[in-house]
Amino acid sequence: MIIVFFLSCYQVEAEHCVWYGECGESVKVPGKKYNCNYTGPPKPLHPEGYELLTVYFSLCFWPIFAYIWCSNHSLSFFKNLPLTRIISMCRCPACFFNLMNLFCELTCSPHQSQFMNVTKINASSVEEVQLPSLSFRYSQVNHFVVILHIWSQGRCRKQFVLSYTFVASVTHHPLSADVPVSGYTPMNNKTYACTEGLEDGSGPCSCQDCTNACGPKPVPPPLPPPWTILGIDAMTVIMWLSYMAFLLLFFGAILVAFLFLVNASCCETLGERFENALRTLFSSWGSFCVRRPFLVILGSLILVVASSGGLVYMRITTNPVELWSSPTSQARQEKDYFDSHFGPFFRTVQLIITTPLKNTFIYSPYFGGSDVPFGAILDKDILHQVLDLQLDIEAIVATYEGQNVTLKDICLAPLSPYNDNCTILSVLNYFQNSHAVLDHSIGDDFFVYADFHSHFLYCVSAPASLNDTTLLHDPCLGTFGGPVFPWLALGGYDATNYNNATALVITFPLNNYLNDSGRLGKALAWEKEFIKFMKNFKNPNLTIAFSAERSVEDEIDRESNSDINTIVVSYAIMFIYISVALGRIHSFRRLMVDSKISLGIAGILIVLSSVSSSLGIFSYAGVPLTLIVIEVIPFLVLAVGVDNIFIVVQTYQRDERMPQEELHQQIGRILGDVAPSMFLSSFSETVAFFLGALSNMPAVRTFSLFAGLAVFIDFLLQISCFVSLLGLDARRQEGNRLDIICCVKLPERQETKTDGFLFWFFKKVYAPFILKEWVRPIIVSTSATHSHLSLEFSQGQLPLPWLLEHADGFKIGLDQKLSMPDDSYVLDYFKNMSEYLHTGAPVYFVVEDGLNYSSPEGQNVVCGGVGCNNNSLVQGLTSPLPFSLSSTTIAVTPSSWLDDYFDWVKPQSTCCRYYNTTGDFCNASVVNPSCVHCRPMTPSGKQRPIGEDFMRFLPMFLSDNPNIKCGKGGHATYATAVDLYPNNTGVGATYFMTYHTILKESPDFIDALKMARILAKNISQSMDHKVFAYSVFYVFYEQYLTIAYDTAVNLSVSLAAIFVVTTVLLGFELWSAVVVSLTIAMILVNMFGVMWLWGISLNAVSLVNLVMSCGISVEFCSHIVRAFSISVKNNRVERAEEALAHMGSSVFSGITLTKFGGISILALSKSQIFQVFYFRMYLAIVLLGATHGLIFLPVLLSYIGPSVNKAKVFAANQRYAGTERERLLNY
């Protein structure tokens, strides 16, 4: 920087003083002194002054042993200066050189009279002097303090500093500008640009301190251009072309079908033999179960009890980390690494405080300057009330296991045991959490020179200051020994105008514990008492939103408990319906005979037994349960189990016993007919679910394991225990015994057997109607249109990689507000957090073990100061090429323990000292002649420590508490940031902390994680060493980086499993499996459309529901398709009509009606997550499954269903030759 002083018109005599020493008190700035008028020759400096000149003014151009014009008093203020500012300037050698040289000339130069002239003297005090271009009132001590403050902010620009220094509106100093003068000899001392190195070997300033050294400002990469075809959105074009192609092929196929009759089939003989083997097996088994019912029931009961015994070892996972993050995932491994080296992330208790008062007020600085508006929340009366609240919270006492627990027992106290004050990130910490300090003011009877306004304005610009340099001289540093950054303690302000804040943010960080349940229990107990206190707190002037670390989990538990009644009512409705609907009542007289309430209850118990057996078996294996398993699997198994129950019972009710056929043979024959269909659906679902367990998402994997086993156990119990119970119930009914009251018997009377209404409706009305020639094309076209629209509207929702690349409406994530009850206090906290906060969660860039910090090479790839690489870690986070800082979601420059250590150890500071007698560390506040500087004031001593010196002084830095003599002590800020080897032999893993920008919605959190990992990857490549980013929310949001892929894989694998199983179990009828898979795929596509329509995002909960919908869809489709495949009617339309008539009614009554009643009750839930992810999605699953399985699928089969299997027709004719049965199946 070049300082040019023009000559003044008024010539003065060279080589004499203009001032010396200190005299009268300043009127403008109380507490400061004017220099004494003196025009004599220079005087020798006292030996004490030489030491100060050697330390601070060694850069002066004149020799320090010369006669000069400054006294010891003029230099002694350096001993009391906040050394953090001097150290900050030293990080930029050119800036420090230029500034110190300017101060040397103005204060002590032997050539002073050549460029300075006294223009106003009051008694013996110099009140005004002239410089070549400026006239100002001068108070040298305060002047330099202001310059130091400016330089410490990293604004090393001469124009800014000089204009700031000589503007009277700045209240921190007494300088004022006047008219230019001329006639003086220019002061043309050599200066350096911040991009230049010094002659002593010091390098140029870093990018952090010199913007010219940064190179071009990074430009964010441009957004990819939209994918278009002929100027139209490409996805829209593709969707419409696909839709038109489908319609063209469909109607073309109809035309071909009229012209050519294709009746091709393959593997018919093999298929018939496989079908016959299954029929024979299940017939024999069914007959055995009816003949030996008590043996089968007892055996089933023993197996269920043995399996369910594992519930004793049941463990429910409520830890969100274990629920949503796989132990092998990147985020989980990084979290474990961070916890093991630095300890777990602290727990957080936070308040966001606003006021309903709207009155703002204006602060007018006494020493001049622009008026400063203050928001109502910063009114002193309001601050006093907030301080009362804060102190009340500090005084909360909880009880844990008979012991009192206070905040100091669990809070984060970084300077403990030297300072046990809790970390409280609050604006009240600028006032030391004291009413007296808040009321502290300096003034007289007429004016107030300084008060909480000036102190606040100073502290928000220098929160680490130990002396605010106003007349108050109060510290800004928090009582816990660390700074309170304004962006953490204030909210609702614009830019950096913190005085406009509309909210106060108070944060209490609490210690967290990994494997210490006792200490964790104390923290939980105190948080519980805090929540209770805040719920009861009332103040008409304060509006408070609050949250504790346990709040979300507590509210989820409360939500679950409040929804128990809703769930119980839902299942009760389904149970009652099943019990009543199973019976076919022929007359009122036989109401209790024909009803099957006991059989229905038994069927429900079997379903519940299968669920408990699945839970028990996996509990034996140590697999923990989740709330999703408990809430979803009973619904799923009930859907599958009830469907099979209705099929078995209703098939028996419609069947007529053949001549000479006994009951056990009849039920065995019926089971042989329907069990393959039940086996097809159940086994398909089981395989699909077990393959879903390959997912890396713990919630999905756990659900898939439990669901797959529960479905298969349910099938086994139904074809054994339930069949035995059906045989007993049939004997009861044939004996005219009452249901439930089996000992009561009605007299014999001839009854006419009739079909049920639902079966009659499907057979005579519904099936013939939808299979009419003019109805079928409408149904197919409507279904295709619906699927097309689902694709079109949800193109941002479907988990297809090529689709995601060009999707605009893709919604991924779980809005945290949905997990809360409607009346939760946490909802207000989430709302205020989005509205007022300006800074997001802390993010740590962790440098893994193995980097040699003692070597210059290892230091240069990390640090951000002089001599450091331009692509170092700190520089990479400050200027993250090729991104702008805002696009990386990084809010502030990271704190760097390495750079602060280099500043701390410099000989220019008094921070690093040791006892020359013992070698132990000597704190800067200690006055002892045996304390000497760690590094000598030599060129080599001013260099960074390397080798043994680096490790010798680093433990001292990490143990040094900040104080008024040295604010750079690293104990408060970096005690946990550096993992030292045993015996301090080296540095292991370290971290560099910064903050994310404010993150409001799930996409914000996901983008923050993405960008942090990109930055960490770039830094790792530039350092050639592993660096990763870690923040507390990464383990929860990592799943969303791959959830689209995981969804595509899970659903694809499930569909593939269903296709393979269906192909085999339908007698190797490949085309039947294609039809089933196609219909299920259409159901899934329409599910995504419903999710888009209802605003349901894609996350782990919705993925579980999608996997479940894939399984339930099998129930809607497989029974119809199998009935169609074994029908021996003349053509596809008749076969489809027969399949729909005989199986459709069971599917409709078994799944659709059962679930519809139970699901409707879920709409009354207070839980938003129940309303969105259970009521809406369950309702969509049932309605879409019913419409596709009972409307679209029969019509599709009537067009492109598999041809009749001639081998099956021949086998059926032989099997029923000479009997009254003329068709293959009479369900």
Automatic annotation (TrEMBL):
Gene: NPC1
The SSD domain, residue ranges: 563-728
Gene Ontology terms for molecular function: cholesterol binding; lipid transporter activity
Main subcellular localisation: membrane
GO cellular component, one term: plasma membrane
Name this polypeptide is given: Niemann-Pick disease, type C1
GO biological process, one term: cholesterol transport
Subcellular location field: Endomembrane system
Pfam families membership: NPC1_MLD, NPC1_N, Sterol-sensing
Source species: Lates calcarifer (Barramundi)
